[in-house]
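Appendix B. One record, verbatim.
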Amino acid sequence: MILIDTDVVTLSRLQFALTALYHFLFVPLTLGLVWMLAIMESVYVMTGREVWKRMVQFWGVLFGINFAMGVATGVTMEFQFGMNWAYYSHYVGDIFGAPLAIEGLMAFFLEATLIGVFFVGWDRLSRIKHLLVTWFLALGTSLSALWILVANAWMQHPVGSAFNPATMRMEVTSFSEVLFNTVAQEKFVHTVSAGYVLGAMFVLSISAWYLLRGRNVDFAKRSMTVAASFGLAAALSVVVLGDESGYGVSLNQKMKMAAIEAMWETEPAPAPFTVFGLPDLEQRTTHYALKIPWVMGLIGTRSLDQTMPGINELVDDAKGRIGNGIQAYDAMLMLRQNKDDAQAKATLAAHDKDLGYALLLKKYVDDPRRATPADIQQAADSTIPNVPVLFWSFRIMVACGFYFIALFALSFWKASKRTLDSQRWYLRLALWSLPLPWIAIELGWIVAEYGRQPWAIEGVLPTALGVSAVSTGQILTSLGGFVLFYTALAVVDAVLMLKFARKGPDGLGIWPPATTVLSSDRP
């Protein structure tokens, strides 16, 4: 007897994935661009040169448009926890709800207030006070991201919590463990660094467009210089911090790591890194694999003698955990009948970490205790995510990361030599590189979230059990509505961004004509 409507699960996952990917078109640009504003305004305050103030004002216009779109898409995304993921919200809301609520308060009160003061405070605040507002806005934006990443990291590595058989929910045992989750720290620094890369690329690319057309030359050169310096530091950080994040995955999400590497069998230590290959999920092999010895072992274990388990070994391990989980499930039901049953308490305490694995069987049988060996094997096999998608998403993302280092290094060198506008091929390269950070960031989220499947909460709650009691038709209706709404917002954002970018600082009256010398810049 199948208790789960797979169509509802699939459509609910699709809806959340689409809205999350839409939302994350705006968030990383906000994270990166606000720090560019803080740097430029700091130069203005230190030098008193009016040109830097005008640079902040122009890039601030584009920042404001993007910020508004990010808030609009973020609000509707959070509604889905109640709409489509009601059981998920019930089961883990005690833990997940707190950081999500704090993030909402910071985003809609702290950030919204500061961004209002940023725009209206130029003539009402002193230079120092306005600079402080900009820096607090940058810090507030990053802190807002921190809380949502704390919540997301708990889904990847659930710590500071335990299952309560009396309430049938996961509950917080240590909020400090949830907050200082090592995965949260790794995800935060890696994610915000990726946003910094996007912010720098945004400024670099649009400035290159001005230089290609011979417009706002001084403005564009200054902007590119800041972007090149900030972008190079950020791109280097992304690679270094991404490596650290990958090490965390190898410790806490072994199946995800094995899937990313298409590592079907456990390799002798240290494991090789597969540069190229064609993963075959059906045959569980990787065709035409090109491997570099030792590299994956060094990255994944930081050693020469530790093995990294392959997918097939991890499936066998999942079968054992499903067996333990069935014992925990049986003990849980016994405790619901008699909460003082000492033997059931002891059994549940011994196997509660594997209870989630028994819940995987709910997709195939109504009672996990009646599962056949075939059911257990099917549930264990379901722990394998989509290997080809993860394999290629990760490699494209990494290739983009190294490309960003090379481009920003070249830009930094040209800025130091004052030759930013000397070669048109470089300006075209900088311009056409604009979409790449978005592509890399979205692929990173696919690796992080798709690689966790079949879990909504790693090892705790299968995704298939988290959905609301809604019909396929209801999901299709809301999915269509969200797609239309988010697409409209994306189109509005793109139109507004293009409109104001094409107008440029001179078209908006922020930058004076080329023949005018700003008073504070006179020799």
